[in-house]
Amino acid sequence: MSSAPRDGAGGPTTASSPDPLRLCVYATIAALAWWLGPFALLAFAALGLAGYLRARRVGLTRSTCVLRDTRLVIGYLAVLAATALVGIGFVVADWVR
Question: Could you tell me the pTM of the whole model?
């Protein structure tokens, strides 16, 4: 019996075959954002904001995010959360009408 690593379909994996999981994650997030609109934006922004605030408290000052500085990332996520709240206000106002 072979001890080679296997992928989810039962086939062997190699170091040269990249796992496109990240692309699947991006597609799933895009689908949720399209389906749930500002509610999804608020959920993802709040989740990211909580994670970065926790990481900042324990000493993380540089991120692999494009913005690099965790203060910038936190500010960006806070702006996204605020924008989502405004969007939710418009959605709810539309429902009420």
Answer: 0.70
